[in-house]
Write a structure and sequence with these properties.
Jelly Rolls, alpha+beta, 2 domains, elongated
Amino acid sequence: MRWVIYVGVVLFCFQTCSVFAQNLVKNPSFEDYHECPNILGTFNEHVKSWSTPTAGTTDYFNTCSKVMSAPENFNGVQHPKDGEAYAGLYFYAPGDYREYIQVALKTKLRPDKEYHLSFYISLAEGSDFAVKDFGVVCSYKQIALKTKKDLSRRQLYSVEGNKFHSFEINHPDFHEDKSSWLKVSVSFVAKGYERFLVLGNLRNNKLTRKVQTKRKESKKGAYYYIDKVELLGDATEEILQPDEEITKNFQNILFDFDSYELDQNAKETIRLLKEYLSDHPEFMVTLIGHTDSKGAKPYNLNLSLKRAEAITAYLLQLGLEKERLSLKGYGSAKPLQSNVTEDGRKKNRRVEFLVAPIKN
C-alpha cells in the first residue's frame, strides 16, 4: 500500500511495512562514536545518537582506549555485554549528584501501544552502595538542563514546551553483582509523543533505596555500567520507510530574481517542515537549491547554495538539529521548466526538499 503525506506545500511519499520487533534505540550498545575516549566524562561528546540531559559527567568506556578502557578501568573490571563499549554513571553519590544517559528514538512512539524496554547493568567494583530503583523518562523534547543533581519532576517541567512521563523499574533485590551483567526490563504503554529516552536515578539521596555493599570503598556512591539498551514495539507495528531514496516536492519554495530572502509563505512552509521532522526523528532533510538561467554559471551556483543555506539557517533557528540537515546547489543546471518565459524562470528559482531516513 502506498500513500502520500502533504506538509504545507511539501510532498512526502512513503510505503508501510511490517518489521519484526525492531529496536527503536539508536546505537544501542554505544559502538558508534565520534572519538575514542581518553578522559573522564566524555559520553556526551563522544557517543553518536546519545547525550546527557544534565550537567552530570557520564563516562564512556571502549576497548579502543587505554585510559577509559574495557574491561579494566578506574572503577573496576567489566567486559562489555555487547560489542566493545559501555556507559558508566552514578546512580547515587554525595550531595544528590547524579548522571544520566539520553537517546533519540528512531521514531516517535505510537499512542496506546505497549513497548518493552530493557538494558543490562553491572555494579562497578569501585562502588560501596547498590540501589534497586532505575528511573526512566520518556520525553517529547531533548532535555538539556544545567543541574548536576537528581532529575526531579520540577526540573523536567521547566523544559519549555515539553511533554514527558516518567516511571521506575523496581527490582525486588538490590543490584549488588560486581561481576555479571544483569538484565533490567519493563513494559509500558506509550502516550504517543515520546521521541527521547532518559535512564538514571530520578530520586534524591533521601528517597533512594540503597544498601551498603560488602566491600567498603572510598567512592561513597553507586556507580553502574550500562550496555545493550533495547526498546521494542509490537512486531506487527507499521514503520515508515521512504518510497524512494529521493522524494521530491511538487511545489517548491520560490525566490525573487537574484534573491535568497525568505518571504512569509516560505517561512510558514519551513515551520511546517520543522514540525514534521520533529514528529519523525528518524528522518533528515537535504535542501537542494536552483536558479534560472540568467547570469553566469559560477554566480548561479553560488546563489543556489545561498538559497539552500537561507532555509538551513531558518530551520536551525527553529531548533532542528544540525546533523539532520544537508544542502546542495545546482545553479541553473536542472530547470523544471523552460527559461524562455518569465513564468518558467520563476518556477526554476526554487529550493526542493529531499527527505530520507538517518543512516546510523
